[in-house]
Amino acid sequence: MIIRTEAIVLRSIQYGETSRIVTLFTREKGKVAVMARGALRPKSRFGSTLQPMSYVQAVLYWKDTRHVQTLSESSHIRTFGDLHKDLAALAYGQRVVELVQALMQDEDENLLVFQLLIDVLDRLNRHADRAEHLFYFFQLRLAGILGFAPHIDREAVERIPESGGALLLETGSVEPSEGRRNRETMRFATRRTLRAFAIVACADPDTIMQMRMDERTAAELGRLIEDFLRYHVEDTWPTRGSRVVKQLLNPR
After folding, report:
1. What is the pLDDT of residue 248?
2. Which phi and psi (to 5°) does residue 31 adopt?
3. Based on the domain organization, do 71 and 146 belong to the same domain?
4. pTM (predicted TM-score)
């Protein structure tokens, strides 16, 4: 069977001397591993379409009995050229595709994740200066699609005192911390950071990109979001990309 589908390249690794095994997140089939034979040859028909974060039209030879399908053709639908010119946008873009690679099941069609991927990569391409904010947005929207969206109560957020409060990892609730006993499933943070978490959990990406945070608040927010996701997907959480982002953006 021949399948023509839009896809985002998540990962591409060398196989033998001339080929690549590529992981795609496709519109029709979800996450799929494909063999691109001859991809490393000088005049390969695949060109630059197999680089991670590429948005392509792919033609697959599909057999239900195979774990790795065959990629026959691929061509760019849209190139995110500016994304590769900015270190922060590139680092966060790579982290985005790494999370989808790690957290999504094989051949599990999910149009919401596919559309989220395209939207975030496109925004990273156009708004590199907001890369960190877009990564916050992506993580919490992905959490929602996977079934563990934060539960934000605006009244509880408003009750957080100036001294700070807590994020409850199980529910994603942001609340005052007084009287809470199970501190292993809580993360304490400043009022400013917890309010930022609530905004990212609820607001649209345009609003999130306009947020203004000092360096300390941004760093604390990043840790809160990562701890929240890791609590729910600990066994499959990828750590390599997180280390790479920190090394690239904070070389000291």
Report:
1. 59
2. -80, 125
3. no
4. 0.92
